[in-house]
Fold these 2 entries.
Entry 1:
Amino acid sequence: MRVRCGLLTVLATTGLLLVGSPASSALPQAGGTLLPTSFALPDGFQPEGIAIGTLPLAYFGSRANGDIFRVNLLTGQGDILSKGPGTPSLGLKTDWRGRLFVAGGTGGDGRVIDIRSGDVLAEYHFATGTSFVNDVVLTGDAAWFTDSVNAVLYQVPLGRAGGLPDASAVVHLPLTGDMVMAEGNNANGIVRTPDGSALLIVQSNTGKLFRVDPATGVTTEVDLGGFLLTNGDGLLLQGRTLYAVQNRLNLIAVLRLDATGTSGQLVEQLTDDRFDVPTTVAAFADRLYLPNARFTTPPTPTTSYNVVAVRRP
């Protein structure tokens, strides 16, 4: 009860408690805090990315128009935090400075949003031709974005105290080595290695996981003992445990990595009857949260979408 009251007090004082009201499921106990096991997103929203910071607030990006939707995890209620640019908002990450980094999909860009006001703090245009900026990870001194149709990572170097740079500072890092581009989605989800020395990216069309040297762009296939992350999408690293969403398979692969991210092994695969092509994953308390992208359902303005939570093993 103390935890719940403390969280409610924080949310109330920041003006984030009373927001819109999509319906949510019943509220079971989770880590001492009442958390819905599922909640609705706006009809027609077409979710893809999710980010959760230290507070029980989740952020979702729309593939339809790039809107950012914010949800209170204690209630399942939410509202539009930031209107989109008309192009997708895909992978998302928050930092402790109160900023949300957004991968811009076919817009070929990324942007940074103030999670208090919804204001756009910075925009970075990475590509002028065909591109699909799919996901983003923060490493302390940079934000790294994947492109699923080009063999490149985009680095936005952060200044002292996390300052956002001018667009001219963006680095295009070509990917070489073991990863070979193929038809379909290539580099998708991205995280750091457990020791922070390199990056890990999943190649959706081959199901392979690669370790990337951030200084050279050289990719090395991670030894997973023959296991393939087929339809691999969003990644979440917790210590040395990697959660990898296998979207169209309606699975979460749970892998145990070595410290450097050069090898790992499958521990288990999680599924749930409520999964409907989940794409990405974020954690809060003892839960994993996944938006159902419903890729197999034709999108319309009235198509329903939701988020489901499962217990984190």
Entry 2:
Amino acid sequence: MRIHLDRIRRERRPFSWEETVEVAPEVLGREELVALSPVTWRGRISWTDPGFYLKAALDAEQTLACDRCLEPFTAPVAEEVELLVLVDEPRPLEGERELKDDELGVLHLDGEVLDTEPLLVEALQLAIPMKPVCRSDCRGLCPVCGADLNGGPCDCRTVTVDPRWAALEKLKPGS
């Protein structure tokens, strides 16, 4: 959604929106994301000197591949976005630099039009866990045969000896 900020400033009335957006999982660039339901994206933006105050929220359901057993599972997503939007003169690119504490939560725009899609995509990306797990006691896959250990133990010998200790194995009685 593209919001014309000059109109909000001129009319001195907040602008509210609510929409349902389809976001393809490929857009988020995360392999563990299998599917994403339609996203309910709503918010409000109002004029506050020196800029605009934006408060938005999104709700969706994401299907992720478990990092341990690789089985898909569904998890709810409920995120909020709060920003101070400042309209600035275009600045030359400075390259990479570290953000200061007072710059966090501030969005600088070069024009009077705010596109909310990048904000939505960023909030969805941040909602994906780094290591998604279907449940806290997930036992994962057998490292030898690949069987799902959540269904029960496999018949593999899972005790492996570190090759650095193999010489000591000969000193054991009965070896």
